[in-house]
Design goal:
about 1150 residues, alpha/beta, Rossmann fold, formyl-coa transferase, domain 3, ten-stranded mixed β-sheet, 40 strands, about 35% helix
Length: about 1150
């Protein structure tokens, strides 16, 4: 719904001046502010309609009104001082000291008259510099700011860029920004201030990029006109065409430059090939100059329109509207609250109205200036209650014999109509003006004016929309409470309470000054939610019991206490409900309100989930930090999970149109979220269906903007790009499939010996310090999944901080480019210092987000670190509920809870069309006390999951990473993956089985060696022990901090197994021919060294290059053993 312009209601006094001050006022007026311009009194002070004063020469007068005041008289200053309390912003365009000389010092007069006034002072030079008292113009200001020195051709004098940089860019626009900042500050403090802006600093700030770039070689470190961005580069310049027009070229990037050469039909070889070589620039410029001269500007437009050559025509101001249909629009377009100069309806695609040109209120760019005094009476009537010529019939013209009133102090000083020029224009030709002809204000006498100013009933409370606090209910209290008498405030409060009592007879009126026990939102709608509000009956840590909760449902979301803490119903007995609260309950007392929301604990699903870190109930931590300005999470804070202000570029699904049937899970459009998730599918919620009655068009939308309308059984419902889903309810699917693709994590011991599958379940149990978190993070960094959901459940905060620090620096290769893996990651952090109850919800929050991306056809990996902390939260809640404990105090339903979580993994066919296949793989870390795998959480988990990566404390102590115990670990997916291996790597399963066999045999031989010594073994067993050592030290171990071994692809793993198993086989053959193993081992020492060095090959070099090296090694190894056996 289109709202009023954002500055509607603001009142601005603008002293007439030159460009920058009026430009700031113009921007304020375009966005809804009422701007009253104070012009100098015209010599013909009593001009009539037949002889109106001429229009002001200033062109920046759009939507402004005018009064002409003689500020050199006391009467004129009295009027200005009377206007100040009614004003929000005053624009001072004068040189330093002018206002002070007029008796209008901002600090000593203006801000005392109106503490909320914002005085915007616009000067040319700095007020404290050597030029402070000197006159100047735009060219002087940009000269001393250093900007002018950068403009011009090499060897020529600097040229002035009209007055755009100083007056408008560095002047009026900067002043406008300062005013907005002051308005925001006033909203927080209730106080105004002086805004100092000058064109020297403003224009200098606009030149920040060139100034910073001066230290960077090749960007802006040379004489003007010879740098990359000031016309020095031939591919960033203007060129004259055949008909005397000009084309602008800005082909900086290589791909744009290629498009430019293609359009010009020039080959790079003509100037030497390297466009960045400055030695070729002069030659390039000559070639481009000659080529552009061959065609007219219109012909070149035909060539380059629709291309990425960055080549556009240089249009003249005169031709913009006449030939191009150009309409000037505001500086920015606000979709929901547009400025006055653009009128867009709610319907997308509606043609925008023609904008307003300079000084124009209608069609075209014809000049129409504001006449001195035009519209001033209307504005004073709105600000001060002034009636044209006669104030409500009470101010009557004085008789000529009456003497002027005695002039007392300045606040009651009358103004003489001879000092004020009120022009009465012909309103019949201006539909925006009132049709009633204004009366002559100069008929009022001094007595009438004084009496008018003395009447207290006419002194209105100055208010400003931006000064109002954002309260959801209750009496609005302006920030300017000093203007309200105490008795009047109490009267207003009593009146508001009486009105509230009349609308809600069942609720007794509150006593003035007594705080209500009901939260603000409930006060506002007490009649509709009375039956949805209970009260606290008892409190036990994070568990509370609420009474008067008849009608609530299991797992319903509730808001607890005055701070509106988030809680969830977990037990219902009669009218009492037991609620686990996900925030700290300190300070909550018996009797505090408990508000039902009527919906379960849900998460928001839509664009914006990636690269975001949430707490356990999907509150964005960065958003909370920005709002609270604290490193802690305030209780009861409510920040949307998905950014409501960010615009997403939506592309509708082709061939989907109005009248088509749509059902849950159907994709009706896509959004580009980031360079890794370039197709975020927008899905209809699973439970929705119907016929499309309004289909969204391509464009930019926010996540909560209703873009799709669906009708089902006569009822229409609108949908946005996001929807909510209960965390405890699995998202429905069309079918579950068996998983046949490997879940590659980049760790050789895991991928080769204990592989997982896409959509599988994995458990990583291990004692403290065994490396569970490190393996979980490695899986997140290097797995072949499309999306990563990392849930830090009860872990230390520094571990989540490590994730936040490491992930943005790590990259993956995508179509030849490197992208940070954070772009595919969603973090859910519920660290050990957060409320324990929220741990229980964090696991479900994570799996629901993972299922959402699974339904888009993505392979999702969810890391839960650790499920032991989650189970401990269950144990604490269970204990506070008084439930019968089971093993080690855990609840008896622990196994069922774990099973319901892990069963949400799997590979599925998603609901809706087009058909999509996706998967969710769950990797759960378990932290058994002391590494005891008989722990209830570990034993229950092992009965559910299909892959067990057991960590060994002794291996971790020996710095063996990953510290996987190969004798304890297992995978039940080996048979499932056989079709994949037969198709891609037929020898892989056989070699993996042989590695496990050698490692297992070596475990038995190690026990024999401890009893009788290694010398008692046969040569065959010695070979097995030596190859097992080779495998343990150089195959099973990986250096996670190296570029060569932090990630190992399957093909490298296969080659390493092939070569090492080949060495074992060749050694066995050699001793079979009668050779001694000691001799063979010494003769093949160089081969063993090269086998140990296989891990040092960097995977990024590519399979082909590295594979050739491994082939050569295998060939040399066979030749070496052949020569040994021939001896």
């Amino acid at each position: 719904m289109t709202q009023s312009p954002p500055l509607t209601g603001l009142r601005v006094l603008e002293f007439a001046g030159l460009a920058p001050g009026p430009f700031a006022g113009l921007l304020l007026a375009d966005y809804g502010a009422t701007v009253l311009r104070i012009d100098r009194a015209h010599p013909s002070a009593h001009a009539s309609s037949a002889n109106p004063p001429p229009p002001t020469p200033d062109q920046l007068v759009r939507r402004k009104s005018s009064i002409a005041v003689n500020t050199k008289t006391l009467q004129g200053l009295a009027l200005i001082k009377r206007l100040i309390p009614q004003t929000d912003i005053l624009i001072d365009p004068f040189r330093p000291g002018v206002l002070e000389k007029m008796g209008l010092s901002p600090s000593e007069v203006l801000l005392k008259l109106n503490p909320q006034l914002i005085v915007a002072r616009m000067t040319g030079f700095r007020r404290d510099g050597k030029y402070a008292d000197m006159a100047g113009h735009d060219i002087n200001y940009i000269a001393v700011s250093g900007v002018l020195s950068m403009l011009g051709r090499a060897g020529e004098k600097p040229y002035a860029p009209a007055n755009i940089v100083g007056d408008f860019g560095g002047g009026g626009l900067v002043c406008f920004v300062g005013i907005l900042l002051a308005l925001l500050q006033r909203e927080q403090t209730g106080l105004g201030q002086v805004v100092e802006a000058n064109m020297v600093d403003g224009s200098g700030f606009l030149a920040s990029m060139p100034r910073f770039a001066m230290e960077r070689k090749g960007t802006w470190d040379r004489e003007r006109g010879t740098n990359l961005l000031d016309g020095g580069a031939p591919f960033y310049d203007t060129y004259e065409t055949k008909d005397g027009g000009f084309m602008a070229v800005g082909a900086l990037e290589p791909q744009f430059f290629e498009a430019l050469l293609k359009g010009l039909e020039i080959k790079a070889e003509e100037f030497g090939g390297d466009r960045m070589d400055r030695r070729t620039w002069e030659k390039q410029r000559k070639i481009y100059t000659a080529r552009f001269k061959e065609k007219t500007r219109a012909e070149w437009e035909t060539v380059f329109d629709g291309t990425d050559a960055c080549c556009t025509p240089v249009l003249r101001q005169q031709e913009l509207r006449r030939e191009r249909g150009f309409d000037q629009r505001p500086i920015v377009t606000l979709r929901n609250s547009p400025g006055h100069a653009i009128q867009e309806g709610e319907a997308e695609g509606r043609q925008a109205a023609e904008g307003q040109g300079i000084g124009v209120e209608g069609d075209g760019w014809s000049e129409k200036g504001l006449r001195s005094g035009e519209g001033g009476e209307d504005v004073l009537g709105q600000w001060m209650g002034w009636t044209k010529g006669n104030h409500a019939g009470e101010l009557k013209p004085a008789r000529a014999s009456q003497a002027p009133a005695r002039r007392s102090n300045w606040s009651l000083m009358p103004f003489d109509t001879k000092d004020i020029d009120w022009h009465s224009p012909d309103h019949s030709t201006q539909p925006r003006r009132p049709q009633t002809p204004p009366a002559r204000l100069h008929q009022l006498s001094f007595e009438g004016a004084v009496e008018y100013f003395r009447r207290p009933s006419q002194i209105s409370l100055p208010t400003s929309p931006l000064a109002r606090p954002h309260t959801s209910a209750g009496l609005y209290s302006s920030a300017r409470t000093g203007y309200i008498e105490k008795a009047e405030l109490e009267t207003q409060q009593q009146r508001s309470q009486e009105q509230a009592a009349a609308t809600s007879p069942s609720t007794p009126p509150a006593t003035p000054g007594t705080p209500s026990t009901m939260p603000p939102k409930q006060q506002q709608n007490a009649d509709s939610v009375e039956n949805q509000v209970g009260s606290i009956f008892s409190i036990s840590g994070p568990v509370i019991v609420a009474q008067n909760m008849i009608g609530c449902a299991m797992y319903e979301l509730c808001k607890v206490g005055h701070d509106q803490l988030v809680g969830e119903v977990i037990r219902i007995e009669a009218d009492k409900a037991t609620i686990q609260v996900y925030e700290e309950t300190a300070g909550v007392t018996v009797g505090d309100p408990v508000t039902r929301t009527g919906k379960p604990l849900s998460v928001e699903l839509g664009p914006g989930l990636m690269e975001t870190i949430y707490d356990g109930i999907q509150r964005p931590l960065k958003g909370i930090s920005d709002e609270s300005k604290s490193i802690y999470i305030p209780r009861g804070i409510d920040v949307p999970s998905l950014d409501r202000t960010r615009q997403w570029e939506f592309t509708p699904t082709p061939n989907m149109k109005e009248g088509d049937h749509i059902t849950g899970g159907d994709c009706f459009g896509t959004v580009w979220e980031n360079s890794l998730l370039n197709e975020h599918r927008i899905l209809l919620p699973p439970r929705a269906r119907g016929t499309i009655t309004r289909m969204p068009k391509k464009g930019s939308y926010t996540v909560d903007q209703k873009i799709l309308e669906v009708e089902f059984e006569g009822e229409k419902k609108e949908y946005s790009m996001m929807h909510e889903w209960p965390v405890r309810v699995p998202r429905p699917v069309t079918d579950k499939l068996s998983s046949q693709e490997p879940f590659v994590v980049g760790q050789r011991v895991l991928d080769a010996l204990f592989p997982g599958v896409q959509g599988g379940t994995v458990c990583i149990p291990g004692a403290f310090g065994c490396g569970k978190t490190v393996i979980s993070q490695s899986v997140s960094k290097f797995s072949n999944s499309d999306i990563i959901v990392y849930v830090g459940c009860g872990e230390r905060g520094n571990e989540m901080a490590e994730v936040l620090m490491d992930f943005p620096e790590l990259t993956i290769d995508v179509e030849g480019r490197k992208e940070p893996i954070m772009k595919r990651t969603c973090l859910i952090a519920n660290t050990s210092n957060m409320p324990v109850a929220a741990r229980e919800a964090s696991i479900y929050t994570g799996i629901t987000v993972a299922e959402y991306f699974r339904d888009q056809g993505k392979n999702v990996a969810m890391m839960a670190d650790s499920t032991s902390r989650w189970a401990e939260a269950l144990r604490e809640i269970s204990g506070r509920l008084g439930e019968m404990p089971a093993d080690q105090g855990f609840p008896a339903y622990l196994g069922a809870k774990l099973a319901s979580f892990y069963e949400r993994a799997g590979r599925v066919i998603s609901m809706g069309s087009p058909e999509r296949k996706g998967s969710v793989s769950i990797v759960g870390a378990v932290s058994p006390p002391g590494g005891d795998f008989s722990d209830p959480v570990t034993s229950s988990t092992l009965g559910i999951v299909q892959v067990f990566w057991g960590l060994d404390k002794k291996l971790a102590q020996r710095k063996h990473f990953p510290s996987i115990n190969t004798s304890q670990s297992y995978s039940k997916y080996t048979t499932t993956l056989e079709p994949f291996y037969q198709r891609e790597m037929p020898e892989f399963p056989r070699m993996a089985a042989r590695v496990k066999e050698i490692l297992s045999t070596s475990e038995d031989l190690d026990q024999v060696v401890q009893l009788v010594g290694k010398s008692a073994l046969g040569d065959g067993d010695k070979i097995t022990l030596d190859v097992a050592t080779l495998l343990k030290e150089d195959f099973l171990q990986q250096n996670g901090y190296s570029d060569y071994d932090q990630y190992c692809p399957l093909w490298k793993t296969a080659w390493m197994m092939r070569c090492m198993m080949g060495f074992h086989d060749e050694a066995q053959k050699a001793i079979g021919t009668g050779q001694a193993w000691a001799k063979v081992r010494d003769a093949t020492a160089d081969i063993q060294t090269r086998l140990r060095s296989m891990k040092f090959e960097i995977p990024e070099d590519g399979e082909e290059k590295v594979g050739k090296k491994y082939e050569e090694l295998e060939k040399e190894m066979q030749e070496k053993f052949a020569s040994v056996m021939d001896e």
